[in-house]
Amino acid sequence: MANRISRRDAILAGVGGAVVNAVAESRAVGEPPSPEAAPPFLTPANDFNDVSRGTPLPHSLTGQALIDARLTVETWKLKIVAEDKAVLAKPRTIAAGTALDYAGLLALGKAKSVRFLKAMQCNNIPRPLGQGLWEGVLLRDVLETCGQLDEVRRLFYWGFHNGDPKQIFRSSLAFNQVLDSPPGEMPPFLAYKLNGEALSLERGGPVRMIVPWAHGFKSVKWLQKIVLTNKSEANDTYAEAGNDPESYLKTAAYFAESGNGKFPSGKPMVVRGTAMVGWPGLERVEYWLRPDTGQDGKLSRRDPAWATADWKPVTLDPAPKDWVAQLPGGVPPKDVWGFTPEGKPKEWPMRFSVANWSLELEGLKAGKYELRVRSVDKNGFAQPEPRDGPRSGKNAVPFKLIEVA
Q1: Distance CA 289, CA 112 (A)
Q2: Contact indicator for 334, 341 with CB cutoff of 8 Å
Q3: Sign of the dihedral defined by the CA atoms of residues 177, 183, 185, 186, in that order
Q4: CATH fold for the domain made of 50-241
Q5: Is the separation of the CB atoms in 264 and 292 below 8 Å?
Q6: pLDDT tens-digit series, residues 223-278
Q7: Which residues pair with 355 in a beta bridge?
Q8: C-alpha–C-alpha distance, residues 234 and 246, integer Å
Q9: Where are the domains of the chain?
Q10: How does pLDDT run across 303-339, given as a tens digit for each residue?
Q11: What beta strand segments (E) does 106-186 contain?
Q12: In this structure, are residues 43 and 130 in contact, taking their beta carbons and an 8 Å threshold?
């Protein structure tokens, strides 16, 4: 059912006696509703937006350079050592021939693999970079192969770099985040598959870290070294530029495309977008339409207009009916984290994933309008609350200027 605005609301929005409808159907203007028009739930590996760092980029290496970097499945090895007061009974080192290799990780996966749906999002870039089904082994299961661990308070880890210490991209986790997890939550894991295929070099393969609740800087690519330490402070590269090293994914709505839009009068106007479902979950997405104020969309955080804004809910796209068709071949939905034994999501939208929405506006008079969207999480916080600081993940309320002519 569409959420229909009353005649009074339409007049207040500056559209006279026109009626404005908001619906959540993924379809082009003039097309009838069609489930086939909905975008695929998983982003193809090659279609992820890339924000890799390094010179040269690790995924640009070829031939002997790739082998020397240990970035092939035949040469990949993971060192696990201890420092400071931390004690590790069975260190894994290359020198001693005990480093974990790719075959060893896959062997662990045969008995203890996990599958997890997660959208990647950079801390400093609005809109997710892509969404995939990641498969691997829990980090705590990997550490179990190292024997007794003592005096460990934190894990430092990083991936391949070209030998220049300034290019090491580090991240870290508190030890309790690795060993413990709230009921029903997925702890960090080492991923070696994406969408049912071996993890490509472009996506951080052969093996990368996946931290379910966090921004992408925690899910370090080309993973090669883990250090167990008694130190309590984070050593994340992202913290060096003033970013919050413990930030978790925020719930936030975005327009599918940046920039403004121009639409013909007398025809329905469809605007599409996505919502990143953060740790607090997603209750709904809302929109606010008003006549253009001539300020190019600028609206300060303290502008009194926020207090009187008339937000209207938009219905989110429903969950796919056929999850077998959405997931890679051979992956039963029931084997994916967050699904019931019957193969259905335990909640919708699913946390740490992307929810799609679309908004159809009809009957707008010629002119310019300001359109904003925001999310409301399951704690009742409307975007950008409760954390509106951009250094813990950008989630400012997005704006689009639309013109009807």
Answers
A1: 50
A2: yes
A3: positive
A4: Sulfite Oxidase; Chain A, domain 2 (3.90.420)
A5: no
A6: 999 999 999 999 999 998 899 999 999 999 999 887 788 889 888 888 999 999 99
A7: 275
A8: 9
A9: 3-29+250-404, 50-241
A10: 999 999 999 999 899 999 999 999 998 899 999 999 9
A11: 113-120, 130-138, 149-150, 154-159, 170-174
A12: yes
Q: Outline where 275-326 has alpha helix (H).
A: 305-308, 323-326
CATH dotted code for 3-29+250-404: 2.60.40.650
pLDDT at residue 350 is higher than 50: yes
pTM (2 d.p.): 0.89
Q: Name residue 238's amino acid.
A: Y
Domains 3-29+250-404 and 50-241 agree in fold: no
- For residue 37, what pLDDT band results from cuts at 50, 70 and 90? low
DSSP string covering 95-117: TTT-SEEHHHHHHHHHHHEEEEE
Summarised one tens digit per residue, pLDDT across range 177-211 is 999 988 888 999 999 999 999 999 999 999 999 99
The answer to whether 283 and 378 have CB atoms below 8 angstroms apart is yes
**CB-based burial label for 367 (10 Å; 0-12, 13-18, 19+):** middle
Token reading at 46: 């090659």
Neighbours of 36 (CB within 10 A): 6
Spatial distance between the Cα atoms of 320 and 323, rounded to a whole number of angstroms: 6
Q: Provide the percentage of residues in the chain whose pLDDT is more than 90.
A: 76
Radius of gyration of the chain (CA): 24
Q: What is the mean pLDDT of residues 93-115?
A: 97
Look up residue 238 and give its two tokens.
């992202």
